Amino acid sequence: MSTTPAWVSELVSSIDGMDADKFASFMTKDGRFRYGSSEPVVGTEAIRAYVDQFFGMFKALRHELLGTWTYPDAVFVQGTVTYTSHEGAETTLPFVNCLKMRGTKVHEYLVYIDPTPLSG
Fold this sequence. Notes:
By secondary structure, the protein is of the alpha+beta class. Helix content is 24%, strand content 46%. It has 3 helices and 6 strands; from the N terminus they run ααββαββββ. The chain has a 6-stranded mixed β-sheet. The radius of gyration is 14 Å and the shape is globular.
């Protein structure tokens, strides 16, 4: 396990701040994003729109990072995420994110999570 790079903390802050524009700025123009078992979303604008819609499903998001592993072409992040519904109910789930890098940008963002508890 390594120290979490500052840019990863900024990326996670963009999610917790529900800032789709900032989130998309970490991606390559032809980047791919996949949440759980959903179909991948390709391209910065499509990713921005997808995460913006996703953020709208919740009142708040809060991540706790438990471990970060950094390699030359990938970063793995393990933690928990707490989703707060618009009614105030909280659901905390474990996750692992695989960030495949192209230079200083994320080319492929894979979220490994079971979102089943969020559907009621």
